[in-house]
Write a structure and sequence with these properties.
Layout (H helix, E strand, L loop, with lengths): L1 H5 L7 E3 L3 E5 H7 L3 E7 L7 E4 L10 H8 L6 E10 L5 E9 L2 E13 L2 E8 L14 H12 L3 E2 L4 H11 L11 E6 L9 E13 L2 E8 L5 E6 L6 E6 L5 E9 L2 E3 L1 E2 L6 E5 L10 E2 L1 E2 L3 E2 L8 H21 L11 E5 L12
């Protein structure tokens, strides 16, 4: 589909910085019926943002079939509804998990936003056209052995009877256990989604007792190699690093939540927080920038890199007022420093409000 879009460049498409391709009006509608704007990022073939005409009305029950029809997913790929939320503005947010031949592709999700059965927009990242061997060469038990070897603990939670008794009590489930339960997933090696190298993996949680650690381990289902891991024992205000656009790699502080990280911190004044407006002008619709390992070096989409500049810059602004002038933020009273990235469409300037 991307090749088709690029072939009609004579229609005066909007090619902007950060390798973005933006279609407006009839051009957008010709790709996705009812769309008034579509944004592609980098070389991805699937749009990362779609804004719809205000007159488009689709029943919620028809949303998934509509997405499949108009976004031309390959026949072996699917979107599965995994969550529905409704915010205070009355907007319903539906999250869909991307699967390839029935196998989940973590970090490849799409969201649909609607109010009163009218689709407002869609956004997310889908890595379509995945071509890998989807039949595991090693069994799950062999993958557990590789994961344990990678962690290298002397004792694991499931080896301690009192811990096993505790999890059964906590979960109110006599079958509950800390013993790993591997599932097949498709991920990019080393968590690199800027230049993805997909492979089939056994994903499992390894909870070590001594020394204590709790990690999600991804073992290549063909080579037994651990190709990625995520720490699950983290702390709020966790030190990380970010590859900014203008200032190189810098140390930042983020917030640990739900197994990932977001651009928020509470240690400086009343907080420093950086949000994504997704080209909206409604601050109430802003969402978090998130990262899996607190190493913010592969922004998806690529122009999210500028959020790192904003977050680090706000932290340095706070430090300047505190260290040079002895002021707690810019007002001397802890004023929270909030940044909103991707304001409006093609709004090529920054401002203080």
């Amino acid at each position: 589909m991307r090749k088709i879009i690029l072939s009609i460049a004579c229609f005066n498409l909007s090619l902007v910085a950060f390798s973005q391709l933006i279609l407006h009006g009839n051009q957008a509608n010709s790709v996705v019926e009812g769309a008034v704007m579509i944004r592609y990022d980098d070389d991805r073939t699937f749009p990362d943002y779609i804004l719809f005409d205000s007159q488009l009305v689709i029943e919620s029950s028809e949303a998934l079939p509509w997405i499949k029809k108009h976004l031309n997913l390959p026949s072996n790929e699917s979107l599965v509804l995994i969550n529905i939320e409704k915010d205070k503005l009355g907007i319903e947010h539906r999250t869909f998990q991307h699967k390839c031949n029935g196998i989940p592709v973590p970090f490849s999700t799409y969201k649909l936003h609607a109010r009163n059965n009218r689709i407002l927009s869609m956004n997310g990242q889908l890595f379509t056209g995945i071509d890998i061997n989807e039949h595991a060469s090693i069994p799950a038990e062999a993958a557990i052995v590789s994961a344990k070897s990678f962690v290298g603990a002397s004792t694991y939670k499931w080896e301690i009877p009192t811990e096993e008794k505790f999890i059964k009590w906590r979960n109110k489930d006599v079958k509950a256990t800390y013993y790993p339960n591997p599932e097949l997933v498709i991920i990019s090696k080393n968590g690199n989604y800027k230049n993805p190298d997909f492979t089939l993996c056994w994903k499992m949680e390894i909870y070590a007792h001594q020394p204590m650690s709790k990690q999600v381990i991804y073992v290549d289902a063909h080579t037994s190699e651990v190709v990625w891991h995520e720490d699950e024992i983290c702390h709020a205000d966790s030190p990380g690093n970010a590859s900014t656009a203008y200032s190189g790699t810098r140390n930042i502080v983020s917030d640990s939540f739900g197994g990932g990280f977001r651009l928020r911190e509470s240690g400086r004044g009343d907080g420093i927080e950086t949000y994504d407006l997704n080209q909206s002008t409604n601050y109430g619709s802003a969402v978090d920038f998130t990262d899996a390992d607190n190493n913010w070096n592969s922004p998806v989409p690529a122009n999210d890199q500028y959020a790192f500049d904003a977050h680090w810059g706000a932290e340095m602004t706070y430090d300047y007022y505190m260290n040079v002038h002895g002021r707690n933020s810019i007002d001397g009273n802890g004023f929270a420093l909030l940044s909103f990235i991707h304001y409006d469409v093609n709004y090529a300037n920054a401002f203080w409000n």
